Amino acid sequence: MRLLFTGSYPVATWLPFVFAGMALGRLDLTAAVTRVRLAVLGPVLALAGYGGSWTAIRLFGVTDLVGNDAVPGSGKLSGPGGVLELGYQDGDRWVASGAVNTGTPAWLLVSSPHSGTPFEIVGSVGVAITVLVCALVLTDKLPRLGSPVTAVGSMSLTAYTGHVIAIAVLGLSGAQGEPPAVLVGFIVAAIVFALAWSRFFRRGPLEFLLHTATKPALRLGRKPA
């Protein structure tokens, strides 16, 4: 149950993003009609997710209930306007864990970062689609400017895994309270590595290993019955 639903960043909250990415990957993103539809869909989903959460919390009057349940190990209310952050205490900082308190269904109405609720998932997918459309238009107009993003995108698994390892090696908590310089450093490092690697190799390191590992399965699938 923890792996699927209640643990830190459970599978159930990540699969929607995987499915959304697979669906987008099957679209002709060069077609103008596809981009227009996505340009509409993205903001609509973002509004439905974050706006729906804001409305639902106030409509059902559960702000106080969620706040009372916000205890260390499950979540807390903090920041301007009572912005909700879920996670665990790390010294004097709060670290997001990707799961909400299961003590009351009211927590499913929030849409805070790393909460993993339906509202947050829908809103995040909407924002991602909107960013994707903007990036596509930008790279068409300014291809040189888009090359760093393209390089990192071609090895996203490596970049994501690398930053998680770097957080552990550097002793960072991964909390939202890290200074902006840390974020900038990760972005620059990912871009520099991706640009350098892509000059010599078609796939990123982990992408190559994944491709190699799945080759036998692909060959089996192509064998005649």
From TrEMBL:
Keyword terms, alphabetized: Membrane, Transmembrane, Transmembrane helix
Residue ranges annotated for the DUF418 domain, each copy included: 123-214
Transmembrane segments: 6-24, 36-57, 121-139, 151-175, 181-201
Keyword hit for Membrane: yes
Source organism of this protein record: Amycolatopsis balhimycina DSM 5908
Name of this protein: DUF418 domain-containing protein
Keyword DNA damage annotated: no
InterPro entries recorded: DUF418
